[in-house]
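PROTOCOL LOG
Step 1. Enter all chains and additional molecules of the complex.
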Amino acid sequence: MALLRLNDADFGYAREAIVHGVSLEVRAGEFVALIGANGSGKTTLVRGLLGLLTPLAGRVERHDGLRIGYVPQRETLDPLYPLSGFDVALLGACRDLPFWQPAGAAERAATRASLDATRANAFARQRYGQLSGGQRQRILIARALATQPAMLLLDEPTAGVDPETEDAILEMLESLRSEHRIAVWMVTHHLHAVRGRVDRTLELEAGRLVKEQR
Amino acid sequence: MELLFGPGMLFRNAVLGGLVVALVCSLLGVYVVLRRLVLLGVALPQAGAAGIAAAFWLTGHSHAPGGGGHTIALLGSLASTFGALALLVAGQRLARSPAEWGVGALFAIASAATVLFVAIDPTGDLEMTNLLRGELLSLADRDLVVLSVVSAVVLVLFLLFRREILLASFDPEFARTIGREPGRADALLFGLFGVTIALGVLDAGPLVVFGFLVLPALAALRIAPSLGAALAISVAIGTFCSVSGFALAYRADLPTGPTSVALAAGCWLAASLAGRLWRRVRQSGASRAAATALVLVAALGLMSGCSSFFGLKPREEPLSRGTLPDLAARGPVVVSRFRNDTGNSLRIPSGNPLREMEVAIGAAEAREWRVTDALQQRAVHELARRGVAVLDFEAARAALPDVPTDAANAARTAHAAGIRTPVMFGDLRRFTVSGDDGIVVVRLDLTLIDPESGDVLWSGKAEGPVAVKSALTSQEVVLDAGSAIFAQAFGNDGSGSDAAKKR
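Step 2. Run joint prediction.
Step 3. Record the structure below.
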C-alpha cells in the first residue's frame, strides 16, 4: 500500500524548481536510501515529501492522516539549550496536545517507550548538547518515533559518526522497520554502508531521479 | 524595608515597578540569549528610548494641561520598538543580509537619534538623562498598574505558549513537520519582546531593560540543569538584583538602575564560577549530591560576604522625637499638603514619561509632582522614623486633597473631613538650589494642630543651607536633603545620627 505517491512532481523555492519530474512511491515497512551528491536536490526532495514545500508541478498523493517522523541533521540543533535527551524526545510525544496543555503521564510514557525502542534510555537524562553524535541521533529518532509515524524520514543520520556507531544506527533502523512496520527513508552519502540493508536505493542527480536499485 | 513598605512608602512604587520590569525581562531574556538575540536586546531598548525622545521633541515637551503633546510618548516607544522590529524583519527578508548588520545599524541610529532629539529639545533633557541613567525613583500608582497588568498578560501568554515558543526556537523545521507554524510562535515571542521592551524603557530606561534581558539569563544558563530551571533561576536572579540593587543604590547614593545591573553582572560571574566548580568537582568523581552541596556552600559564602561588604542594613536608624510632643494618645498624625510660598512652581519633572504624559494631557493636573509633594511624603516618613504614629501618604492625600492656605485652614478642612487626630501643615517659603555649590537653601515652617480645638500643638522650622551631594534633579535634592531638613525642623539635628551630620 502506498503511503505517499509523487507523480512527475517539481519542488523548489520562489517558483524555481530544483527537483524536477520526480515520480516515486513510499510503501509501508520499506527501508529506502536516498543518495546523491551535494546540491543534487536531496534536501529539497525531503522537504517536498514532508509537505513543507508545495509542488510547483505534478501531483502529490498522501494517505489520509499520514504522519511522517522527521529526523533532521543533528548539527542543526543548538546544543546551548539546557534540554535533556528526554526533554527533546518529549517534544515529539506532545504532537497532539493543545498548546496550553502540559505534557502528562501518557506523553512521558510514550517518550520512554520511544527511547527504549532506540536504546537511548540510558543517557536520556543527560544534557542533549553533551551527548555524542550517535547518542544524539538516537534521541532524535526517538523524538520522531514518539510522534507515532507511519514513515520515518532521516536526513543524513550517519554523517560524522564512526563506522561502529553507523552500523548500530542502521541496525536499529532495520529493527524499527521490521518491528513497527514503519517505512524508513534516509538520505545518505554512504552507499556502501546501506548496501545489503535497504530494500532499494534512489539516486538523485541535478534534481532528477536517475537511478533506482533494488 | 520601611522605606519600601512603611508609612512613608517613599520608594514603594519604584521598587515594585523595577521588580516587575526585572521579572519579565529576565524571563524573556532566556530566549534572547538562547536565540542569539543579545544584540537585538541592546538595540530595541535604544530604539524605544529614541521613540520617547522623539515624542518629547515632536510635542515641544509641553506641560500645558490639554496640550496633548506627551500622549504620544507611550506610542512613541511602542511605535519605534515595533517599527524597528518590522524594519529588521523586512530587511532580512528583502535584502537577505545577515541580521546583525541591521541590528548594529539600528543601535547606532537609535543611539544617535536619542542624543540628537534631546539636544534639540533642551526641556526634555532632564527626563531623558534620568531615563538613560536608569533612575527609577518614583512611579505613579497608575503607571504601576499599567506596567503590572501588561506584564501579567505577557507572563500568561509566555507560559501558555511556552512549548510552541520552544519548538519554534529549538527546531522550527521539526515544528513544521508536526503541524505547528513556527512563524506564529516567533511573532508572538517578538511581540512579547516588543511590548516588554517598550514599556520597560518607559519606566526603567534602556540600560536596565537590556541588563535584565541578558545578565540574569546568562547567569542562569551557566548553572541550570533544565530549561524550566533556567527560566526560574533567571527570574530569581533578576528579582533579587532588582530589589537588592535598589537597597544598595539607596545606601551608597548611587543611581538605581546601573547598581541593579552591576549586581546582575556579579551574579553572572558568580554563576560562571559555580558552574565551573561544579563541573570540576563532578569530573573529580564526586557524587552529584556532594558537588551540589559544595557549590551551594560556596554560593552562600559568597552571598554572605557580599552582604556584609555592602552592609545590607537600613541606612536610616530610628530617631528620637526631638521637640515633637508625645502624641501617643492622640492617634495618627495626618500630614496635609504643604503650601508653596516660594513664588516658583517647584515642579519636579518626572523620570517617568508616562507621568509626564498624564500631566501634559491634563488627565490629572493634581498628579503633577512638586517639591512640596516630595516634602510632604518625606514628612510622613520622617515622623514614622521618630516613632510617631502617622497616616500613610496616599491616605492623607485622599483625606485632604486640597492645599490649605495656612495652618488654621488646614485644621478646619481636616475637621470638616471628619479627621480628629493631629494635622501637620507645612509652608515652604524658600527652596533655592545652587548646583555649583552643592547646596539648597530652605525655609520650611511646620505646624501641628489639633483640628477639634484648633490649638497649635507644636511648631518648628528648617532654615538655612543644606548640603546636597551630586543631586541632579529636585527629587534627588529632596531625597538628599530631606533628612537634614526635618532634623532641623524636629529639633534633633544635634543627635548626630542622621545623614546630614555625616555630610
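Step 4. Note key features.
Chain A touches chain B through 28 residues (CB under 8 Å).
Strands of chain A lie at 2-13, 16-27, 31-36, 57-62, 68-71, 151-155, 183-188, 200-205, 208-213.
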